[in-house]
Structure formats: structure tokens, C-alpha cells
Amino acid sequence: SKTMINMSDFMGIKKSDGIDNFYEIDNVIGRGAFGEVVRAKHLFSDENRAIKIIDKRKLKKHSILMELQIQELKILMKADHPSLMKVFEIMEDEGHYYIISELMKGGELYDRILSLKRFTEKDAANIVWQVLRGLNYMHKQNIVHRDIKPENILMESKDETNLTLKITDFGFAKCYDPKEGGLTETLGSPLYMAPEIIKKQKYDAAVDIWAVGVLTYIMLCGKPPFKGKSKEEIFVQITSKNIAFTSDIWKKTSKEAQKFVRKMLIRAPGQRATADDLLKDEWLLKNLDQ
């Protein structure tokens, strides 16, 4: 069996008798598989932060997830980019790990999509540009996120004219060596999963671009490109259905926007645009200038 990496083996994790010596914990603002996210105030700087509390007992039952979580911590400690969630410190006590990060007050992009139904091309471009910049930073270091979806993109403010965001939840993120031919674990959220993951082929950072393609499609027309009553039905569509741009909404959307989305939803990963390519796209740049 694989030996577990001991958390204290890697730098930066503070052993603590109690997190309440450093933070005043307020209300729960989110829940995940291994614990919850709370709002808290740093006692020494008076700043508001978010703390992800991970229950060690729940993690230990899943050694693969334990390893993924350790990867997440390592990646988060090193990440420094305006589009990625900033982590201030990581602490642990007997029963928990605590990931202390900046507090985003605007909620998930998912909720923004539900309330707005769809975005103008200008706003969609602004959001996608930030996501692609964060991914480009990760991909250049051979890190793939593997779970890009609107629930993992947090908005800075509830003000709908403020589109500043951060990519969060690096629980599935992984460093890979391109020389080794790619990754194989089947991970992610069905609606955003790239065809190569579903087909159990080796994959790389291109899976993140496919997910951004699905996200952009949803933001521009208000509906996902693939539908199905079950995961299996959705998977059949992702691997074989032609992506439609035929609804009335698409007729009102610029051809350049459609072309931009199509570049990301190419089934052959080798032909799919990279984050670097997409950041130079005419439609994107034109909409950022307005």
C-alpha cells in the first residue's frame, strides 16, 4: 500500500493547539465533501478571510483523495496569480486541516448565471478572459485543474457590474509530466467533462479548455451544449453529438463569439486551442476594449 505523505513533511503547515487563537470563526458559507467553509476574522490584522476546514477522519477513508488534497495544498501554497484564489496559510490540529484564504463576497459564478440567465458578449468575454489567464498560468507549470465549472469560480462582489473573479477548489488539480503522455483518472463534473476523459484516454491541460468552452456556451445562450436525464446520456452527447448553434439566441450572437466557443469544443484534444491561443483571440480582445 502507498505510504501516506505526512502533512508536516512539507513546509508551511502550522501545527496549532487551536485555530481560535488566531481566528474568530463566524458563519458557514459553504460545504464540501470533507468539511465546510467558514467566514472568519484574523485576530491580528482584523481582516476577513475564508477558512476551508477539512476533517482528517473523512479524508483518511479515501487515500486517493488524501493524496489529491495534499496536492491541492502544495499547489495552492505556490500559486500566485490574480485569477487564482490566494491562500494565506495552512494550519492543522489533531482532527482538522485549515486552508485560510481570501474571502470572496460575491458567491459562485453558478448563482450569477442562474440570476442573469445569460450574459452580454462583453461580460462573458471579461469573465472568460480572467479564467483563461489563471489557467494559462497553471498550464505553463504543467498543472491541470480538472474541475472547471461555475461552482468553482467565485465572484469578488455581489454587485453584478463587478466581474472580478477567482478560480478556486484545486481538489482535483494535478501536476503532470508531458513526457509521460498524460493523466488517466476519471475525474470532474459530468457536464464539463472532456470527451477524452469519458473515453478513458490519456489527457492533459486541454481538458480545462473544453470545460471553459462549455462554460462560455452556457454564459452566452443560457443553456448547456449537452443535455441528458442521466450521466450516461450526457456522456454519449459529449462524445458524439454535433454542438448546435441554431437557437434564436445564437442567431443574435456574433459569428466571432461562436467561432471562439467552437475552438474550445473540438473533440480532438490536439486540435483544441490552448489558453495561450485563446487569450489572443480577436473576439475576446475586442470585447475587453469596449
UniProtKB/TrEMBL annotation:
Subunit details: Monomer.
Keyword set includes Membrane: no
Catalytic activity: L-seryl-[protein] + ATP = O-phospho-L-seryl-[protein] + ADP + H(+); L-threonyl-[protein] + ATP = O-phospho-L-threonyl-[protein] + ADP + H(+)
Coiled-coil ranges per UniProt: none
One example GO MF annotation: metal ion binding
Residues given in the record as ATP binding sites: K52
InterPro entries: Kinase-like_dom_sf, Prot_kinase_dom, Protein_kinase_ATP_BS, Ser/Thr_kinase_AS
UniProt entry keywords in alphabetical sequence: ATP-binding, Calcium, Kinase, Metal-binding, Nucleotide-binding, Repeat, Serine/threonine-protein kinase, Transferase
CC cofactor: Mg(2+)
PANTHER family, per database record: SERINE/THREONINE-PROTEIN KINASE
Record organism: Strombidium inclinatum
Family statement: Belongs to the protein kinase superfamily. Ser/Thr protein kinase family. CDPK subfamily.
Enzyme class: transferase
The name this protein goes by in its record: non-specific serine/threonine protein kinase
Domain Protein kinase: 23-284
Pfam families named among the record's database cross-references: Pkinase
EC number: 2.7.11.1
CDD domains linked: STKc_CAMK
